Amino acid sequence: MTRYVARRLAFAAFLVVAVSSGSFVLARLAPGDFVAGSLGINARPETIERERARYGLDKPIAAQYRQWLANVVRLDFGTSLLYDRPVRELVPERAANTAILAVTGLTLATLAGLLLGSVSATRRGGVLTGAIRAFSVVFLSLPPLLTSLFLVFLAARTGWFPISGIRSSSSSPAGSTLDLLHHLVVPACALALPLAALFERLQSQAMREVIGERFVLAASARGVPWSRIVWRDALKAALRPVAAVYGLVVGTLLSGSFAVEVITAWPGLGSLMLDALRARDVYLVAGCAGAGAVFLAVGTLVSDLALAMVDPRARE
Amino acid sequence: MGQVRHLGRRVVRRRTSHGRLFGLALVVVAALAATAAPVIAPHASNRQFPGLLNAPPTWPHIVDDRGAWRAPFIYRWRLVNQLEQRYDEDRSASLPLIWFKGGTLVQSSDEVVAPLLLLGADSFGRDVFSRLLFGARISLGLAIVASLGALLIGGAMGGAAGYVGGYLDDGLMRASDFVMVLPAMYVALALRSVLPLVLTSAVVFTLLASIFAVVGAPFIARGVRAIVRSERRLDYASAAQALGASDLRLLLRHLLPAARGFVAVEITMLVPAFIVAEATLSYVGLGFPDPVASWGTMLHDAANVTVFADFPWLLSPAAAMFLVVLGLNLILQDGTPIKGVARSGAGVRDQAASRLGYERPM
Predict the structure, then answer these.
(1) CA distance A167 to A184
(2) Is the ipTM of this complex over 0.85?
(3) What is the Cα–Cα distance from A68 to A51, expressed in whole angstroms?
């Protein structure tokens, strides 16, 4: 087990370094740079040269990369050219917003998915099962891009929920948590609905298989109440497939939250990355990508360990 | 008990086959609409009607105000409020629809004043329905080309890794594991932004197709590798080898065809993912340039929330996307047997993911 954990940790570290370095180099290789973009076409060549030198953009790419790497080791991630603030301050702020969104979405989806999946697996036929099934088929075909568009449309039409941003400008500090939750409804649901459908299908299939097993028949023959068999024994035994897919879901969650953030103007990592890429803000791009990679590494690490605990076969 | 269970299973099976037929119908309709776009669409994709910005759909009527039945006709829109862009039906004059004129299926009899706008007009006064049809060509075409690219790359990688084994296998599979773990949307974003922001649509098409192909390839490579590895140990493979088949022939003629079923399923999952990915990239302005009609650029035009809350027909590309993805998902519904994967024991994660028709990269 120790070796397994060590190997996964090494992979996680590699992931973070590779992703942030890769995006740094890609953003640097892109034609046009921040200075040319921000000063516009009429700037004098001397001004452009001076600004480039100020940001360290005049050096060859290898030298700039080495410089950046040396700074990163000292936990200096550079200064965002676009916002003129240290990347170290800017990124965690936005990353926290993304984390709120992603964790809420994932929690909602897991709860709804496991519950609905268990219900639809244990009742054959009937209106409820049919309704759950229809829900899943529909929402499996609605990626976060579409759910967020439709939910924003609904919210704008009904006026029940705010449709953009993370807090209202007039909110008092006391009501700020409530305000945040109010703003969270649309983006979190947009992210959670497709995932809930996925978990429901997985759980339903796993549950149906477990209920066919002989230990369920044996327990039922001994007179254990059916609801107790379903919610205690079978549910536990059927958790494996959902646990197994969690690792894949982390990446999907980040991709999905990108679309949701852009559409609902949620100030998260995805929209920051987009702004940074558009403005060719190399340090910010690398910082965002690094933060995303940390999310990813932690997510896969946790889900791998969880799976290894549930199912020893996964350790190989 | 046995009887009941048997009956239940039969009912369920019949129901899924209905769903599958429905899904097939959706996909076929979309494909036909995309192919026949120049004939079905009433207007060119970039034709603007300056007096009809954000005009609502003109529904064809068959009963007029006096209750008499007539051939399908439409009423023209009259601008009521310039600022709010509100329109009113002008019921004083009706315009009959004209069929098969000038190479298009159906048009209104007065195209200049009252064009046929089945799904309304966008903020430039362009016909949304026509753009939707032409956009289907780009969006669906891109997704199909990208999936074929992913098939080519993934098949080659998986075939080589499974057949040769050893270090090559290790290296290729590590690389594809790495790509699979990354959030594909960000990879596509980063790769896309390496090139200039404004490119011609042909360049964008090629670029996006190759990015998507690279991102999607590992999903195919892993399964193909597992199938090739396990098929290689079977008798028919040794028989072919004993008869003097070369390595390449054995791989191409005998082993890779065994992955057909798996690849078909996988492509049905990649296509919707790529449709959505194109839409996301175009939505944020990193996809196709604006005048080109794709489902993503159409959503980009509607991007302003206040706009699509008042003019819901601008969301029709989202609805179209949903229907196509739903169709593909329904075709895949429940337990399409994935040949070879179960036999080769491709790992818990793969099985869990592929059984459900998930495992989509985007």
Answers:
(1) 9
(2) no
(3) 18
